Amino acid sequence: MRWIPTAIAIAIGIITLLTYFFELPVLGALGAAFKEWTIILTAFALLLGLGNLILVHFLRIVRRAESGAGYSLIVLLTAGIVFGIGLAFGVTGEPMVWVFNNIYLPLQGAFFALTAFFLATAAYRAMRARSLETGLMLLAALIVFIGQTPLVNMLGDAKEWILNVPSMAGVRGILLGVALGTIATGVRLLIGMDRPYSE
Amino acid sequence: MDALLSLLDSTIKPGYADPLVVFLVFLPIFFFANWAIKRNAPLTLRPISGFAVLKGMLGKSAEAGQPVHLSLGTAGIGDQSTADTMAALNVLNYLAERGAISGSPPIVTCAHPTALPVAQDLLRRAYRRQGYAEEFDPARARLIAPDPQLGTGGQTNAFAYAAGTMRMLGNQKLIANVMIGQFGSEFLLLGETGAQNNITQIGGTSETSVLPLVHATMNHPLIGEEIYAGGAYLSGKPSHIGSLLAQDIMRWMIVLGLVGAVLLRTLGLY
Question: How are beta strands B107-110 and B68-73 bridged, if at all?
Answer without folding.
Answer: parallel
